[in-house]
Design brief:
The chain has helices at about 20-40, 45-115, 290-320, and strands at about 125-135, 140-145, 155-160, 165-170, 175-180, 185-190, 200-205, 210-215, 225-230, 240-250, 255-265, 270-275. It is an alpha+beta fold and about 325 residues long.
Amino acid sequence: MVTLDRSPPPFFKQGPSAFTRLMFFSALAIFLMVADTRWKVTQPLRAVVATMLQPVQSVLLAPQAWWADAGHYMSGLEAARLDQHQSQKKAAAQAERVMRVDQLERENARLRELLALRPRVNVQSQAAEVLYDAPDPFTRKVVIDQGSRHGVILGSPVIDDAGVLGQVTRLYPLTSEVTLVTDKDAAVPVVNSRTRQRGVAYGTPQVLGMELRFMAGNADVQVGDELQTSGLDGVYPAGLPVAKVARVDRRADSAFARIVLTPKSQPDNSRHVLLLHPLADQLPDRPSEAETIAASAAAPASAASVHHAKAASTAHPAASGAKP
């Protein structure tokens, strides 16, 4: 009898064992991961695959984008209707106040004319938009879309719809950096609207607030007091809202009270702001020293000429009345 060959045909020949193949492909995978991490060998392949799959991704994401746009449109439409309704109510409520303000402004102008007071300086302003926060994590600054080419002046105060936001501290041709009132280097001269007591508010970036420093422990400061710009620094116009007293700590071991303030402006939420020209640049120029000396020298000369004229007019009748 012929011995039967029990080995499988060549078509069904077995290759390496499963364990051998597992070890080989595991080692290959580890090698490829290390090579990709160190030498970025698969980066070109990834770029090609991503470029080829970009149209497919755009098509697959289109329904989601359309659905999101539709939802935003409906929510925006409802929000616009609510805003319109609230604006109409607010306009109706403020109509009487506007009429009273106009009347008070006319009365104030008449009183200034009667008292021969110099009219209040009209502050020049220009609108700007906040682009982004400054990249420095140790400061509180923002960048706006107005620069030296737009007429921005270094040191210009910046306000939003609620109060003082900061001051321009660095100029570029097309942009400017604004140091916020909550920055550690910011200082704003203020006056208490209730007691008319002056002070200086400093920024405290740790808590995104402000402090009224160097106030005596027995100073008349209460929670809820409104602080406004005093105008004594020649930068901020007087009467701009700055902050509100949030907490007063009177410590027995210190001669000064710790007064914590809440800024009136919204440094993190303000988008559109207003730039004011520094107050000192808009005040009338003082006469120079040479002009003052010339005016003082001309005063005695004019007095002497008046004296000689009076003497001549007194002597003239006597001369005309004398006989030859």
